[in-house]
Structures
1.
Amino acid sequence: MKLRQLRAIEQLSGMEYGNAGHLGIIYLSWQRAACDGKDDDSRLMEQWRRFAEGEAEAAFKDFLLFEGMHWMNDDLFLCMRLPGGRRELLENWLLELAHEHTASWERRFLDELPAGDKTLWKRKLHAGFSVVAAEPGQAEQLIGYEAMKQAILHGRSAGAMERSLRRREIDRLLERRQIHPVYQPIVSLWDGAVFGYEALARTDSRQWFPGPMELFLFAEQEGLTYALDRLAREKAIDGCIPLNRNQKLFINVMAQIMEDPGFSPGQTLSLLEQHRLSPHHVVFEITERSSIDDFGTVKKALEHYRSQGYQIAIDDVGAGYSSLQSIVELRPDYLKVDRSIIQNIHQDEMKEHILGTLIQLAFKMGISIIAEGIEREEELEKVRSMGVHYAQGYLLGRPAPFA
């Protein structure tokens, strides 16, 4: 077993004998929320100590790289002696190992607490890790201090390890361009023809991002919105079949992207030309994941698009951050009414009234209505009878790649 561990870590790190090694630290600390009281929970901390020491011993007793554990007050540090080689690979390896064990320990420790203790225990487990090079001649104590400090900094917020793994995953997706588009038809309710397709981003890996919503929300938190949005737009155009003269390709664009000073719409035109498409085929579907702070900047970007022949739609009307202000300020060509309004509209007078109001507003502004999330024949018949122009939903076609 130890021989297999050695071979695995040597392959992982690209180890060369004679190179300086690394010190790896896994850090665990239960911390109170700022608003918690100061009730005495020393008994529970002692219970955690016994539990953590037992779990660490069971997990790492035959682990060749494990050097031991020690406590500093109530903080636990697990020490690993790692070989030389690429630090990035070693960090990835230790991050996965640390998350696998610490997430399991936290869950099982809380599950084993009696109901009364669970009420008293108002702490969150902070877990971090670090990998520090052990340079020749450097004092062992200083190396250990630096590794512990970095592990504490990494684990200063609850969920830090999972966040690091999610960040690594999104970096990999962007670097390898591992997003693929699917297309959902938008059908004309006048003649039943396919009016266009909405391009939707998908990934093959669902471990850290179950769906595109989670992926884009995390990208926003990490400052990667622009990079992910651009990649999704490029993939949507790359995967699109030639459209008929009057068909449209609806591409999602976050409104906040247009507030970015580095936003450059010229790349989209270049891509379209490569695929023998023109701007008149494209509708930019404005999605608001947070309220728009600067309508002036967004309107300026949209005017640039419109001058080239693109059209504009506002997504999720009736839900989320989409508002009447967005409609008035941005003057879109299409309003996409959210499924929360369309679902069971044939049985809900209030939803019917809301849609009727949007239809009247759209008529006065020269805007077309698209009903999203159609899943039942009754919903389709209702929106058609009310004068909705287009519809989209599983009843009419599921998202899929072009054959």
2.
Amino acid sequence: MRDRITGDPPRLSATEAAREVGDDDTLLVSGFGSVGYPKVVPLALAESDRDRSLTVVSGGSVGPEIDDALVEAGALERRFPYQARATSQAAINDGRVAFHDRNISTLGDEVLYGDLADGDVAIIEALAVGPDWLIPTTSIGQTPAFVENADRLIVEVNRTVPRDVRAFHDVYRTGRPPNREPIPLRDPGGRIGTDRVTFAPESLVGVVESDRRDQPYEFRDPTADDRAIADALRTFLEAEVERSPLFRDSLRIQFGVGSLGNALMGALGEADLGDRELIYFGEVIQDGLLDLLDDGDLATASATSLALSAEGQDRLFEHVDRYAEDIVLRPADLSNSPTLIDRFGVVAVNSALEVDLFGHVNSTHVNGTRVLNGVGGSGDFNRNAALTVLALPATAADGDISRIVPMTPHVDHTEHDIDVVVTEQGVADLRGASPRETATALIENCAHPAYRDDLHEYLERGERRGGHIPHDIETALDWHVDR
């Protein structure tokens, strides 16, 4: 372990490091896709006897050591900008923890310039550390911006992550406005940075050693609906790459994190793309992308996190040299950069809770009130992609709830952000459609047959009232009552 710590930084136990954190400090923690986050210091914070009211800012989702333990200890007062644990969700919905949701691409800047939160302490997981540098582990996320912003730095060196994982990293800083230079990345698989994050030596409080592994993703087996959605998406994309000159040489694609996204990745291996390269430019590397790389169906995968199952982690760690030829990890302000998403002509494929008849999408709040996670990177990709696809089952709760609804009670993505909707029922291409045409396409192509008549009746009531968007406002949210 000592060869991972260069120089002679202060070495602390987790308990000693926790004592260096003030009771109402703002903590900037590494982590994205529930990997690469600090583990032993947050646990020590949760186990301390002090009455704490901490603010925690992470680049993306983190594990139970933060979003379970700190909440259960009553030590977490405020949380930014994404979480995905049942414990933190309950605390936020009960009002015990304040939560503010943000897009991923701008988070680093908002922290760096004090628009969101000023960091007191950055707690960063690393696989190695030196006098003025650290090398992240399984995610990069917003670590560079967090380290730059925080007054003090605590580094957790995790010996369970192979040192060779550094081969994936491409850390590049964009500089500050108004003199920010154009990002010089010309190819999704290109490299423009280094494997490390630098910091001011005087900010380093100490180094803590850790041997806790990331909690791996647990992907459920694809359902019949997942497979039908994947088949519909594959058929659509096969036709689209033949139709559009945008995909003359390659298809550049992004998928949202989760079991459905992982299943959709796998379906691309069966797609007939002619002689076009398949390239991934997104946030997370999931097991489905490793499968595509193993089968020779994927040319490049660029992301900010290795969000893998236990089997996927073992496979990647055993063959780092092979995978490092095709996988690149970047800071989240590059992986989610609107400029790069636009430059590479990415096809964004994300899921959601529901979509209404006129194309507005709710990704985060059940019935518009109970938060599940956060908007994450879907806002970055849906708004800036060359083609935006929403993929979701037509129903939830074993068919008792339609995901195609008259009006969403919460909007994360507007009608202007969504081009195509795919469910197990079919595909609705909404490009150029009027609101009435959008509603008809969603009902006939994407809604479950059990709900089509009611949706048509709603649309007819709205049309009798008139207007460009024919809502029947008096009954618009009836579908969400008592759900």
